[in-house]
């Protein structure tokens, strides 16, 4: 039976919000003056965090909201924000009766832009309606628009996923050397750290170097030798790679032989 809030003149109701990060960490907070445990999550009293009013509409425009907080809170640090640990995290905001712990989720969304200002931060909350802003009509392109090993690609991610161990790293150049026998196979792929200071984070592999692979994330501090990671092979989304390397041309989501804009500039010339 669902709980009816504010049914009496005097009722103990607090706000709660949960942050489900992509690295698997879930953080719970409440506006109450003590911690509350419900739904399998401890919601910590968070005087340094404050969600704004939530605007709900019947239209298709996104329901705006934001969360403000102080970086002094030990659950949210400046380093975590800089590393992107909260980027795209799923957020739930709701009300809870602090006596019975009956609760209801009033808002579902995700964290968008995060800005740090002095000793505090502001996080934009995007509702599920934000997905409606995406263009549902695919654009033509010579390269494949499908995510590698995604639903449209059809290949199994398990075939192209490997465990690796760091041999050496160079934080200045963003280069990491793994014990993987073929670094070229993971170009355009991803690395997900299992150990070390970046455990749980995923970075793109953007280039190859004589000393290893180049990733697009800052190595501060750099991973030490022996740190474990999961390496996912990549694809350059060309028809040649799709057909020759993966034998998956039937699922290619692109138009490699469609004439480009340069065709419009062509005109006949006298002999």
Secondary structure layout:
Blueprint: E1 13-20, E2 26-30, E3 36-38, E4 41-45, E5 49-51, E6 65-70, H1 78-82, E7 90-97, E8 103-117, E9 120-127, E10 161-170, E11 175-178, E12 190-193, E13 202-209, E14 212-215, E15 228-232, H2 239-244
Describe this structure in words.
4% of the residues lie in helices and 35% in strands. With 271 residues, it is mainly beta. It has two domains: 13-131, Roll (Pnp Oxidase, Chain A), CATH 2.30.110; 157-251, Thrombin, subunit H (Beta Barrel), CATH 2.40.10.170.
Q: What key attributes describe this structure?
A:
2 domains; 35% strand; 271 residues; Thrombin, subunit H; mainly beta; 15 strands; six-stranded antiparallel β-barrel; nine-stranded mixed sheet; globular; Pnp Oxidase, Chain A
- Main β-sheet, spatial strand arrangement: 3-4-2-1-7-8-9-6-5
Order of helices and strands: EEEEEEHEEEEEEEEEH
Mean pLDDT: 83
CATH class of the largest domain: Mainly Beta
Helix count from the secondary structure assignment: 2
Biggest sheet, open or closed, and with what strands and sense? Answer: 9 strands, mixed
Span of the ends, CA to CA: 85 Å
Percentage of β-strand residues: 35-45%
Computed Rg: 24 Å
SS content category: mainly beta
CATH-scheme architecture of the largest domain: Roll
Determine the fraction of residues in helical runs and give it as a percent range.
under 10%
Taking pLDDT < 50 over at least 5 consecutive residues as the criterion, the unreliable ranges are: none
């Amino acid at each position: 039976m669902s709980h009816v809030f504010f049914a009496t003149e005097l009722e103990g109701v607090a706000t709660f919000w949960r942050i489900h990060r992509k690295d698997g960490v879930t953080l719970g907070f409440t506006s109450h003056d003590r911690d509350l445990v419900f739904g399998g999550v401890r919601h910590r009293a968070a005087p340094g965090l404050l969600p704004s009013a939530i605007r709900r509409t019947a239209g298709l425009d996104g329901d705006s909201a934001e969360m403000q907080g102080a970086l002094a809170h030990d659950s949210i640090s400046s380093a975590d924000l800089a590393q992107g640990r909260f980027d795209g995290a799923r957020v739930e905001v709701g009300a809870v009766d602090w006596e019975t712990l009956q609760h209801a989720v009033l808002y579902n969304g995700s964290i968008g832009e995060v800005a740090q200002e002095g000793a505090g931060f502001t996080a934009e909350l995007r509702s599920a309606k934000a997905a409606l802003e995406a263009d549902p009509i695919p654009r033509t392109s010579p390269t494949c628009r499908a995510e590698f090993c995604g639903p449209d690609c059809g290949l199994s991610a398990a075939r192209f996923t490997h465990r690796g161990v760091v041999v050496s790293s160079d934080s200045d150049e963003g280069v990491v050397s793994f014990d993987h026998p073929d670094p070229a196979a993971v170009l355009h792929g991803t690395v997900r750290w299992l150990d070390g200071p970046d455990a749980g984070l995923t970075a793109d592999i953007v280039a190859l170097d004589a000393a290893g692979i180049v990733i697009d994330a800052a190595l501060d501090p750099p991973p030490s030798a022996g740190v474990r990671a999961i390496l996912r092979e990549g694809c350059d989304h060309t028809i040649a790679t799709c057909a020759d390397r993966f034998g998956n041309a039937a699922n290619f989501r692109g138009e490699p032989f469609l004439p480009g804009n340069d065709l419009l500039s062509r005109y006949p010339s006298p002999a």
